[in-house]
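Researcher: Let's do a round of design. I'm pasting the structure tokens now; please hold your answer until I've finished.
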């Protein structure tokens, strides 16, 4: 554990965790949004990720395979913060075409003993036009791609989902290094039904067409009736022309947290209890689609060893969310340092030596 993580856990987290989880999130986001000069200082102090962590995926260069998962910066309020904190990429959103409030509060809960969260935000979004206003004039960082995660509005019927995706893609195209079609949130009624092979293939085709050459990823759930259903959906995503898959979103399962007082809350579970399920889904998808299509592994990653295991199992890149809440803003730097040290221990000159077989190459 680094000194930053220790300081966060001893000094900052106890104060934050006394607040409602969403209030704490809003407070932290407001600090990050307004803290440009302190973030510049932090970045200067900690330095960039080691050169050995540079990878190239879907035609983009990433200075580290450690990314920020969707849902933390939903409205593009602090895009300058993520490179400064050591991330190699970050995903804004989920963004819907029209603004919507999401579910009533409270809608996010901490399961502290399990290092987990349950959330049922339900795509609270300021809408694509507001996000475009936040991002206009922003200077983007070379080697730190900015992803835009796209979802349909709650009151849009499933058969019109493609038009919603297209509306966001059209408006936010100038700001996207890659897009993500999110059909795997458990908090919008009927959304996951769009993952059926027939529907997803058509949706992907449409999004790829709208994105005009910007790579499109599709984010999948970890919950499937049968493993064969997951295989069929993953293959349909590839057939639709996606650049890659993100595995996975939060789970509806409560396996491993049954005794938590919060386990009965409706919503998607993330963090440590999701780790094995998300890894198993990644392995399954890798076997189904073969080695050439890139995947981003996400779900329960909280250490460099977890990240390494995901890269070994079929991911070219990984993302974190819940571990950031529990370990604080030094997490990406700690994961970068751990991955670089592991590369050195394994005698690899580059992390790309590990991920190259998954359709990526050294930058
Ligand atoms: C509070 C919260 C909000 C989230 N919102 C989104 C979202 O808007 N879109 C999305 O694709 N995933 C969202 N996610 C899912 C994360 O991106 C990630 O897939 C999931 O949490 C598993 O990673 P983790 O265990 O590192 O948190 C959210 C997760 C959390 C905890």
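Researcher: That's everything. Go ahead.
Model: Designed sequence:
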């Amino acid at each position: 554990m680094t000194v930053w993580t220790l300081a966060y856990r001893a000094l900052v987290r106890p104060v934050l965790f006394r607040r409602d989880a969403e209030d704490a999130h809003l407070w932290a986001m407001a600090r990050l949004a307004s803290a440009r000069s302190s973030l510049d200082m932090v970045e200067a102090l900690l330095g960039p990720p080691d050169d050995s962590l540079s990878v190239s995926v879907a035609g983009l260069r990433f200075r580290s395979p450690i990314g920020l998962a969707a849902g933390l910066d939903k409205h593009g309020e602090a895009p300058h913060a993520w490179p400064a904190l050591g991330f190699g990429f970050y995903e804004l959103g989920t963004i819907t075409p029209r603004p919507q409030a999401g579910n009533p509060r409270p809608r996010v809960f901490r399961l502290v003993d399990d290092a987990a969260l349950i959330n049922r935000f339900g795509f609270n979004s300021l809408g694509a036009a507001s996000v475009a206003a936040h991002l206009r004039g922003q200077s983007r960082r070379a080697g730190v791609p900015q992803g835009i995660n796209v979802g349909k509005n709650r009151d849009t019927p499933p058969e019109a989902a493609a038009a919603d995706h297209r509306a966001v893609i059209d408006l936010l195209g100038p700001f996207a290094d890659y897009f993500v079609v999110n059909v795997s949130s458990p908090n919008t009624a009927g959304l996951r039904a769009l993952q059926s092979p027939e529907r997803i293939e058509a949706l992907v085709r449409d999004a790829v067409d709208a994105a005009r050459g910007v790579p499109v990823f599709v984010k999948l759930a970890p919950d499937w009736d049968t493993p064969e259903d997951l295989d069929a959906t993953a293959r349909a995503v590839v057939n639709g022309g996606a650049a890659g898959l993100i595995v996975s979103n939060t789970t509806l399962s409560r396996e491993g947290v049954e005794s938590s007082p919060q386990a009965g809350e409706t919503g998607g579970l993330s963090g440590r209890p999701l780790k094995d399920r998300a890894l198993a889904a990644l392995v399954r998808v890798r076997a189904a689609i073969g080695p050439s299509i890139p995947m981003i592994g996400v779900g329960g990653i909280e250490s460099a060893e977890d990240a390494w295991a995901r890269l070994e199992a079929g991911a070219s890149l990984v993302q974190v969310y819940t571990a950031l809440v529990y370990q604080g803003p030094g997490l990406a730097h700690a994961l970068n340092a751990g991955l670089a040290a592991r590369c050195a221990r394994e005698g690899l000159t580059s992390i790309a030596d590990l991920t190259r077989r998954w359709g990526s190459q050294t930058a």
